Amino acid sequence: MDAKQKKILQEFKKAGARIETKSRVKLKTKADLALFYTPGVGVASSYLAEHPEDARALSVKKNSVAVVSDGSAVLGLGNIGPYGALPVMEGKALIFKEMANVDAWPLVLDTQDVDEIVRTVIAIAPSFGGINLEDIKAPECFEVERRLIEHLSIPVMHDDQYGTAIVVLAGLLNAVKVVKKPLKKLRVVISGAGAAGTACTKLLHLAGITDIIVLDRSGAIYLGREGMNAPKQELSTFTNPNKIIGSLEQVLERADVFIGVSGPNLLTSEHIKTMAPNAIVFALSNPVPEILPDEAKRGGAAVVATGRSDFPNQINNALVFPGIFRGALDKGVTKITEETKLRAAKALAALVPTPTAQKLLPDIFDKRVVPAIAKSVR
Amino acid sequence: MDAKQKKILQEFKKAGARIETKSRVKLKTKADLALFYTPGVGVASSYLAEHPEDARALSVKKNSVAVVSDGSAVLGLGNIGPYGALPVMEGKALIFKEMANVDAWPLVLDTQDVDEIVRTVIAIAPSFGGINLEDIKAPECFEVERRLIEHLSIPVMHDDQYGTAIVVLAGLLNAVKVVKKPLKKLRVVISGAGAAGTACTKLLHLAGITDIIVLDRSGAIYLGREGMNAPKQELSTFTNPNKIIGSLEQVLERADVFIGVSGPNLLTSEHIKTMAPNAIVFALSNPVPEILPDEAKRGGAAVVATGRSDFPNQINNALVFPGIFRGALDKGVTKITEETKLRAAKALAALVPTPTAQKLLPDIFDKRVVPAIAKSVR
């Protein structure tokens, strides 16, 4: 561990936790206790036993989100288990509170079994108004999310999937304004077929982009490729219409957009030069992107974005998830629909009406972001 | 619903929840975000992946307790499910914060199956520094608590069992001072063989009282009684040494102590008159006790306590659970031992060195209570 890392760890130790609880009512006298504990609480309990649908009005369910992870795909660190995941979940809980006044509690799980994760989240769901799944690896995350959405009557979103997809689409909506290309005519290459890559592909397709090629470690995904799991097979049915076979370098030729949600240092300026003119490069691998912004620009990229805060154009989920859950909680929305995801991307993009190559999306501390996204949730 | 109940419900609605989350660090700049979210959080995550034992120093695990209920035995209201239980769990979370600065989060479960409860709590345990079980019915609660204590390396306490038992023993330690009887010579009758009755019996026995008769709905429990479940059979092995058979009225004759954790209005002054002189009556059924204080005194009781805040001598778990978990969290204690329970009862009793019939235990807002109990946890 270097000196800088030691200093960071020291900051984490100093705070202990990043969040704590806070009382919303006073508890100073026996009368307070008699109201909010016994015997008064019996009135609320009896009422909710008869009217469980009113839990949102009378309890923590009103404003709470569980941030749930099994620690199987934490940041770029991989499968580091629940304790490794805990600081990330606390960081999200902190962002939820500061950005959107959502009361989020981190729940890291001592299991990575799909059935167990689903069972556990269903079991604890009555206490929460929403479930933010986080850092669960593909393909397990798809089934976990699908089954929970099916079963629960509170909103469930796997942020690595749709938080990322929404902010990527928002960035792309503004990037095409900068390069003056029609969205639906774009040829998009997506490197990475995990949680983020799969969801980005689906949302971009839903937004009307038909020429998308997704790549995993074996190269381009195409209909009929052997040995693919079910989620990749599904991708192959609506992507890569020309059944292009090949490596990332090969499929990148003449592409308008590169979206990287895969790994560090995959590309050089030489690769970017083979793309169509005015190429858009979203190199989102964190902390080391698929290609550094300067290198991408040397290859002729017109617009470059990364996941990092120290370059322009940070494409960050934190622009999305607080507003999505804020909106869902406020309106009692039980499912985050595809239409909501599209609307959220458009609402976020619309906050920068005249985007430039240096400024695609609003700043993460821009106070307009959460209300705009929340408004798009229906 | 009467006017008073409507007013109480209104207060619950006004606050929405009784607790919320609060940030412990500031998140105002990109530098803050880079420290506590990506990329800084990666340092803490990597470290905890390697050193999970340090989660207490670096995360919410340091100061957090899950208040877990399946809603199967809520207050005197019975099996009213998770939503009915939620206001009680929030009330406890509120008390945890106000009394002991413990960050407790309510988790009400959508299951009442013992295996599922155990599995769920084990699954979510990495996020918490302690587990407070609550309002789970007997006999299921015994197995749930036993299996969780066995499996987890964080403290687990079913408050309806041992929170109650500790405060009852504390009250009794001071009541015998008032009536000047030796503790170990007492003849104690305990009405109720559920969670509280069973734990009280065990702790009083551990404190050296040998003549205890426990009753359930079928009357006195004695060795060899037919049709008893395993927990009652266990009670029969160390209680009722003279194998007295009979109803509550019958076994109450010549008893020194009555402890009611059963139901409303079971006794009259006539029954109390049959007890030994200077009888001690703890009528703890809530909100309606087994006998009202005035009625018990008419029968000659020397010391009377209830669970209610509107009579003298409130015997309330809230005197105990905040300090138990405060102590366990501060010291990294992983099990609440029998010795700790005894010490906690003695520490609580010692805060009123000269008890009277009107004042057995300290007030619930007495600032000395939590530190004294926390100190007894080892």
Structure description:
Two copies of one chain form a homodimer. Chain A is an alpha/beta fold. Chain A is built from 16 helices and eleven strands. Chain A has helices spanning 3-15, 30-36, 41-50, 55-58, 81-100, 114-124, 140-151, 159-179, 195-206, 230-238, 248-252, 269-273, 293-298, 321-331, 338-350, 369-376; strands at residues 19-23, 64-69, 103-108, 130-133, 156-158, 187-191, 211-216, 219-220, 257-260, 280-283, 303-306. In chain A, strands 8-7-6-9-10-11 form a six-stranded mixed β-sheet. The radius of gyration of chain A is 22 Å and the shape is globular. Chain A starts with a helix and ends with a helix. The model of chain A has no long low-confidence stretch (mean pLDDT 97). At the A-B interface, helix 1, strand 1, helix 2, helix 3 and helix 4 of A face helix 1, strand 1, helix 2, helix 3 and helix 4 of B.
